[in-house]
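Dear colleague,

Thank you for sharing your sequence with our group. We've completed the structure prediction you requested, and as agreed, I am returning the results in plain text so they can be pasted directly into your records. Please verify that the sequence below matches your submission; if there's any discrepancy, let me know and we will rerun it promptly.
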Amino acid sequence: MVRLAVFLTVLALVLTGVTASALAFSHGHIDAGIAFLWPALAIAMVLGIAMPGRQRT
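Please find the predicted structure tokens below.
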């Protein structure tokens, strides 16, 4: 259950950052697009690595 909660949180954060980046790129704001995109990717990688593994019993 914890894995699902972490996954959904990461998904929401990444999609928010990617959406903001896409909107900025579509309006021609390259600097803002990059500024929104790299934290979204960093969040995905850091929390993806920190996600708890499966418990084997």
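Summary note from our side: The mean pLDDT is 87.

Kind regards,
the structure core
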